[in-house]
Amino acid sequence: MSTIEVDTARLPLLLHELRMPAIARLWPEFSERADKEGWPAARFLAALTELEVAERGRRRIERHLQEAHLLPGKTLDNFDFSAVPMLSKARVMALAAGDGWLKKGSNLLCFGPPGTGKSHVGSAIGRALVENGYRVLCTSTTELVQTLQQARQALQLEAAIAKLDKYDLLIMDDFSYVHKDQAETSVLFELIGARYERRSVLITANQPFLHWDKVFPDQAMLIAAVDRLIHHSIIFELNVESYRRRGALARKHQASEAPQKKAKERAPSAALPHQA
Ligand code: ADP
Ligand code: MG
Questions:
Q1: Whole-angstrom distance, CA of residue 195 vs CA of residue 164
Q2: 61-84 b/e with 16+ CB inside 10 Å = b?
Q3: CB neighbours (10 Å) of residue 129?
């Protein structure tokens, strides 16, 4: 057995022990190349460790994308900004990069009628943030209230809220669908209070603050919650026609125009005198 074989025999095991799968996979190829091209030992080591760190970063982002429960297929690339002229693409892109607002625990509040792209843009911002190294959780507000309520019943509310602290951004979709009659919504108030000025939330809601009296048990709690949410906040108001409805109307319009268009296209040729 050569010295090299003796030296490397335990390498797979050692690298496995050290949890370095990229190096474990790549070292034979790299060491062959390093020998052939006469790389200094430091260069060989640096190249392998850089690759391990890069792969680790990629795996971390994959894990964070899975845990985020973002809406599948909704990205900023496939968001049509021309449909919402009041929304600055540059502003959205800056928010999607993190750009300080998460560090300050600022909130993003997204209002507008159903179908105007609130969930799409919210989830897409969340996705971009995860890709930029932040941690995000996207959930329907109703589901979140249920989870927190169960935690309260088990006397674990504080722990459940603290567990959400690991997320730089908590996306609470369809905030105004939560109804105080169906749930003990004061848990939401406690969550908002706990995250205030520390950890960001992104809220989407069909109803503006005015109508949130259905969400919270009493006026004082509503005022205090809204106060905390808006203190450091960015507000998007997507007051446009529903994107789905607009698409359906455009298709209907096209369909009703199509036969006329065809008729028009045919008309001139039909009017042409037959060539002899
Ligand atoms: P909301 O949350 O405001 O009710 P959604 O985000 O669920 O609306 O949007 C409804 C549907 O329309 C989704 O399939 C979404 O991807 C699509 N949509 C809405 N606005 C846009 C947009 N500006 N560009 C591309 N798709 C959009
Ligand atoms: Mg929605």
A1: 9
A2: eeebeeebbbbeebbbeebeeebb
A3: 26
- Write down the pTM of the prediction: 0.84
Identify residue 246 by its one-letter amino acid code.
Answer: R
**Ligand 1-lining residues (CB < 6 angstroms):** 74, 79-80, 83-84, 112, 114-120, 204, 243-244
Torsion of CA 95, 97, 100, 106, to 10 degrees: 40
Cβ contacts of 210 within 8 Å, gap of 6 or more: none
Angstrom distance (rounded) from CA 219 to CA 159 = 27
Helix (H) or strand (E) segment spanning residue 14: helix 11-17
Pocket test for ligand 1, best of 109, 119, 243 (most atoms within 8 A of CB): 243
Mean pLDDT by 10 residues, the chain (276 residues): 70 95 95 95 96 96 98 97 95 93 96 95 98 97 94 95 97 91 84 96 92 85 92 93 79 67 44 35
Please give the number of the atom of ligand 1 that sits closest to the Cα of 116.
Answer: 3
Cα 38 to Cα 41, 42, 152, 169, 265: the distances in Å are 9, 11, 64, 48, 72
Q: 135 in the Ramachandran plot: left (φ > 0), alpha (ψ -120 to 50) or beta?
A: beta
177: exposed, middle or buried (Cβ count in 10 Å: 0-12, 13-18, 19+): middle
Rounded Cα–Cα distance for residues 211 and 208 (Å): 6
The residue to which tokens 């607009």 are assigned: 246
